[in-house]
Amino acid sequence: MPERLIRLMRIINLIQSKPGILARELAERCETTDRTIYRDLDALHAMNIPISNFGHGKGYAFISNFSMFPLDWTEQEALAFSLLPSALEPIKPLISEGFDSAYEKVMGAHHKEKSKRRDIVQDVADVIQLGTPANRKDGQTSLYDIIQAIISQHTIRTVYYSQGRNEQSQRDIDPYYLIPRDNRFYIIGFCHNAQDIRTFRISRFRDVQLLDQAFDKSDFNLKTYMKDTWSIERGQQNIRFKVRFHPDVARYVKEEELFTKPKMTTQKDGSLLFEVTLNHDREFLNWLSQYGPDAEILEPPSYREVMRAKLERWKLLYQD
């Protein structure tokens, strides 16, 4: 089905760009058979796309003012088209006088659309308010460049501060997704240095530069990658938590916007049994701590000990 949808869109583009195109040429350009093209044209008619056959040998064209805009070019396609005049220079005397003006109109429409997209990206970046890390004084972010890179699928080069190693390093990153978590923004993408998928916190980026190098996300699936992840930290564990929430907070827990799908069962006394499987524990335990004594870890038993030890440390800290 996706292949046919792509072919239908290509047929529309081909008819728009070359009114009078024949069925056999559509078949050649779409790398299929004449019979398949006829079936596709019938499907387009059923969708009220105004395509008309002007008779034997005259091909297909749109009737009325139907068209598909704007030009949805990739950067590679735009670059290839921009080189067209130089490629045709040897045969320029044979080209119709209208070519130059037609070429200028097409490129003008392309640049106008690019400018419109840049404005939209800038507007989006402007309305997203990011906090400033306490150790940063410049207050600058590279959100615009990052969003632009994600949309256009271009690699970024940045100096990244790694908190774990307490050092900065230059990295080339293919940014796949922009992820908001706990009042922070993260990028999930392919790190060329590590040759693997990594998670990066935007506030630790320095001097982001958009490169000409395009990338392909290939078969990367975000949901699969983030499976059983409480917030942003991923681990290799498989921890099944069972927690009982007091009736006073049960309704608030049910309203939490979570990134996992826990099993929640209301008990007869109004308390809430909360069960979830996670691959990392730290973020979940931090979230649980906000409910204090209204949240009791039932399983695993080892995490009851973890919580008990933490409470003992707090008790010692505040003892007179």
Automatic annotation (TrEMBL):
It holds the Pfam family WCX. Residues 7-51 form the Helix-turn-helix type domain. It comes from the Bacteria. Coiled coil: none annotated. Residues 144-209 form the WYL domain. Residues 239-314 form the WCX domain. PANTHER family: PROTEIN PAFC, PTHR34580. This is Transcriptional regulator.
